[in-house]
Amino acid sequence: MKLSMGGNAIEAMSLRDRAVTLVRELYERDSKRYCDELATNLHCWGETLVHCRRSKKAAESFGEAVTLRRQLYAQGPEQHNTALASSLQKYRISLRSTGWKKALNLSMTLFSNHKRDLKRRRIPDELALSLREYGLRLYDDRRIDEACVADKEAVALHRQLFAMDPDAHRGALATSLQESATILHAADRFWEALQISEEAITLGRQLFKQDPERHKANLARHLYNYGMILLSE
Fold it and tell me: Which residues contact 2 (CB under 8 A, 6 or more apart)?
């Protein structure tokens, strides 16, 4: 029996649904006072629905949370930037099953809400990951030149994160480099793709040495992709 049908999941859904209903009633009476609380409950409701594999309803819940958090962000960007970014990211991910083009547009909205943090040199993991995903979505759409631009920025961010804490960010940098190699290869930039792929393998081997069982599969992927690039020469 699937998790979505388990007793704990059903109970969680029931409790979250009830919480949203109650807060929504409060919001209807005083929207200004309860806007943030309703947005938070909708976001949590969406996470519960994702856990229970209700992707369509999760997207609807995250979408409503995004609408409310955009209103809050307009009133106080500093206070609500992080919450809006989180809901946008969850909303974008939940839309994958219904249409990646809409998710692609949401990616750019997410980036704009992190610009303030980036200028302050607080480079969050979320921004680097979002840039990577945006580059891959552009790649899916065969907008290769644009994908290269987004991907280059993602790799640069991952390198900065890696420089600050190598052990914490080695795996993310390796993955970002391998994705970059794929995109560069699609852009017929063979030697750049090969060099980037070699760097990913180096990092992958370091991780494999630390924990073979955990990193075996990733290293295998890096090696496989490197071989595919070589074969295409």
Answer: 53
Say how far apart CA 70 and CA 40 lie, in whole Å: 13
- The ranges of the chain annotated as CATH 1.25.40.10 are 1-113, 123-233
How many beta carbons lie within 10 A of that of residue 23, not counting itself? Answer: 18
Contact 89, 125 (CB under 8 A): no
Class of domain 123-233: mainly alpha
C-beta atoms surrounding 79 within 10 Å: 11
pLDDT, tens only, 91-136: 767 766 655 555 555 555 555 555 555 444 444 566 677 677 777 7
pLDDT at residue 2 in the model: 38
What pLDDT, on the 0 to 100 scale, is given for residue 14?
A: 80
Task: Using the predicted structure, report yes or no on whether residue 228 has a pLDDT greater than 50.
Answer: yes
Handedness of CA 198, 200, 203, 205 (dihedral sign): negative
CB atoms near residue 15 (< 10 Å): 12
Q: Which residues contact 149 (CB under 8 A, 6 or more apart)?
A: none
CATH topology of domain 1-113: 1.25.40
